[in-house]
Amino acid sequence: MIGSSPQLAVVRADITTLAIDAIVNAANGSLLGGGGVDGAIHRAAGRELLAACEKLGGCATGDAKATPGFKLPAKWVFHAVGPVWNGGGHQEDARLAGCYRRCLELAREHACASVAFPAISTGVYRFPLERAAKIAVATVRETIAASGVTRVVFCSFNENAEEIYRDLLSAS
Ligand code: ADP
Questions:
Q1: Which tens digits make up the pLDDT trace of 58-86?
Q2: Which CATH number fits domain 7-170: 3.90.170.10, 3.40.50.80, 3.40.220.10, 3.40.980.10?
Q3: Is the CB of 121 under 6 A from ligand 1?
Q4: Of 20, 22, 23, 93, which is most buried with the most CB atoms under 10 A?
């Protein structure tokens, strides 16, 4: 861990199992559920989560909205809408950074000390993993101090993502 920030960590896990103040969902703009991590979160949280999401009226790309975690061990779910990768010339980087920034703002509003992020947009939305992980780590490093969050976990679902995050966190 030499050279890495004590506030940022990597875990390899199913994000729905984490007992933490808030987990982030990689949602789509309708907020009405989807596949991947979104489907897993809705299955684990129970139907009340969908009912809560229905009241939010969708969410813009690059933004995020909060609901309780219901049956999840996490207290809150921040539903972030990442960009679909479309070659990189359509504000994908800025919109992905917006997701991380907004989630840390939501963490401040909801007094969360710990937040876990999946690798937003890197599944069905096809954002290149290494580029996305760099944006994730850089944006969290820039904004964590203002958020009051003391621990951010980058939750990797596979070995490749875990290794990329570990390399980024060990670089200053
Ligand atoms: P997107 O549509 O934003 O690309 P996906 O859910 O398809 O969202 O994928 C986002 C990332 O979440 C991928 O890196 C995928 O491997 C990961 N992922 C999928 N399921 C889980 C889970 N249960 N916990 C943590 N990460 C997950």
A1: 999 999 999 999 999 999 999 999 999 99
A2: 3.40.220.10
A3: yes
A4: 23
Of all atoms in ligand 1, which is nearest to the CA of residue 28? 2
Convert the pLDDT of each residue in 13-52 to its tens digit. 999 999 999 999 999 999 998 999 999 999 999 999 999 9
Give the pairing type, strands 8-12 and 151-156.
parallel
- The token pair at 27 is 């949602």
Atom of ligand 1 nearest to the CA of 15: 24
How far does the centroid of ligand 1 lie from the alpha carbon of residue 35, in Å? 9
Q: Is the CB of 15 under 6 A from ligand 1?
A: yes
pLDDT digits (tens, 9 = 90+) for 102-159: 999 999 999 999 999 999 999 999 999 999 999 999 999 999 999 999 999 999 999 9
Active-site hit among 14, 21, 38, 167: 38
Predicted TM-score of the model (pTM): 0.96
CA dist 151 and 154 (Å) reads 10
Collapsed DSSP state (helix, strand, coil) of residue 47: helix
